[in-house]
User: What shape does this take?
Amino acid sequence: MALRCVYTDLDGTLLGPRGSLFRDPGENFTLRQARALEACHRAGVEVVIMSGRREAQVLADARMLGQTSYIYEAGCGVVIDGERTLLTGGWSVDEDDATPAERMNDAGIPALLFKRFSGRLEWHSPWHTGRELSLLMRGKVDVAEVNEVLREHGHDDLRFLDNGAIGRRMEGIEGHTHAYHLVPGGASKANGVAFHLRARGYDPGSCIGVGDSIEDLEAAASVGRFFVVANGPERDEALRKALGRFANATVTEGAMGDGFYEAVVSTLAERR
Assistant: This one.
């Protein structure tokens, strides 16, 4: 079956250190990611970003890549050819023009989590500002435990998720700090991928995903094959363990953009 679409995470996957499209894991200049994107273009394969970043950031990257679809704020929103759809359940901009992010803040939910997980969770500054649909934090916590705290306080319609290890260290925490998102309505990258796939009419078997976090890996349920770039499991033991849940998941030999190139080129070669 011909490849129709590649769903890819940005940071730590398509992009190299410091969010560069033209840096390899060793911070040397590279054209590998660009060559993989060129190969997709030549083969008529759509590339769709699935990122935890704010929409303005994802839109800018999608335009740079020449793509018309993207998934942003960890699956809270999907844009297809300029048409925006929110996947946040009952959470939307209310009659007072308050965004879901503002409503979560006003309800004291971040304060609840920062108090309960003091020293282990904080805002992912400065990237936590300007968000409309979700909240962005960093630290090192048990995601299941945080979600249980949310349920205990009546917030069953919120989901706390792990979007992978990051380079930013945090005082008092051993090992890699993680980026976490608090999303409404059970939003996820997997749901965003599934929505886009249905809207385009793609067969799941004709699509692949590429990422470096547990949240990315969950999208394996929506595509024929999923590639985890090598830096993901190298940094994250939980991701290594989660790999066993998905028979269609493969770890690339290369890290970051090298892994993205490997995933795209190997798939195209298999499906000629």
